[in-house]
Amino acid sequence: SYDLTQPPSVSVSPGQRATISCSGDKLGDKDVCWYQQKPGQSPILVIYQDMKRPSGITERFSGSNSGNTATLTISGTQVVDEADYYCQAWDSSTKVFGGGTRLTVL
Amino acid sequence: EVQLLESGGGLVQPGGSLRLSCAASGFTFSNYAMSWVRQAPGKGLEWVSALSGRGGSTYYADSVKGRFTISRDISKDTLYLQMKSLGAEDTAVYYCAKDQDMFFGSSSGEDIWGQGTMVTVSS
């Protein structure tokens, strides 16, 4: 089975840039999605096909994917961005999620 | 308004069965791939199963293959997940999610999620 690895936690100061990585074998050959989930809420799609933003998602969210690593970048991080973030990829007729990264803004 | 509403969760004994439902509204149900995703208490997201729009091809995670069956009733705009031989490892919140595309492998992501329904497997 295909595995996606994310750091368990990332901390950032308000106004700074946050980067969350997602690693997998030849991940750059696949399309990656990113989801945001706040406590007690359902996930929200923030990036799809590596770098596209769904309607209504702030431009502060951006994505990239190359080699073995995909990256979610949040510019000008705000307290409201504090959440769990999950990467997702499609492989061999299944979808796989990374283990998730808790973003703390402090 | 585009909406998904899950139901059918509850407490079930190990080895038991349960059927989850997901009622869709606000979009043409048959035009989009649909997925079930679960989240065990305090854990991350796990993709469970999906069904493509139009043709209705089905896909399953290895962890549920042979035990879970995804299906839909287009006339009722409803997605189902029939679960059998349930074990403690199946305890989770189960989310229904709509893909942005008709095809499951399009990598467009799931843009609409339900609120989830809790399944607890315990004696």
Largest sheet of chain A: 6 strands, mixed
Proportion in helices of chain A: under 10%
Question: How large a portion of the residues of chain B is in β-strands, by DSSP E?
Answer: over 45%
Largest interface: A-B, 28 and 25 residues
- Most strands sheet of chain B: 7 strands, mixed
Count of beta strands of chain A = 9
Radius of gyration of chain B: 14 Å
Helix and strand pattern of chain B: EEEEEEEEEEE
Strand-residue proportion of chain A: over 45%
Instruction: Calculate Rg of chain A over CA atoms.
Output: 13 Å
Key words describing this protein structure:
heterodimer; A: 106 residues; mainly beta; three-stranded antiparallel beta sheet; 9 strands; 0% helix; globular; B: 123 residues; seven-stranded mixed beta sheet; four-stranded antiparallel beta sheet
Q: Explain this structure to me?
A:
The complex is a heterodimer of chains A (106) and B (123). Chain A has strands spanning 9-12, 18-23, 32-37, 44-47, 61-66, 69-74, 83-91, 94-97, 101-105. Chain A is mainly beta and 106 residues long. In chain A, strand 7 and strand 8 form a beta hairpin. The relative contact order of chain A is 0.35. The model of chain A has no long low-confidence stretch (mean pLDDT 97). In chain B, the strands form two sheets. In chain B, strands 2, 4, 5, 6, 9, 10 and 11 form a seven-stranded mixed β-sheet that branches. Chain B has a four-stranded antiparallel β-sheet with strand order 1-3-8-7, with no helix packed on it. By secondary structure, chain B is mainly beta. Helix content of chain B is 0%, strand content 50%. Classes of the chains: A mainly beta (106), B mainly beta (123). Chains A and B meet through strand 3, strand 4, strand 7 and strand 8 of A and strand 5 and strand 10 of B.
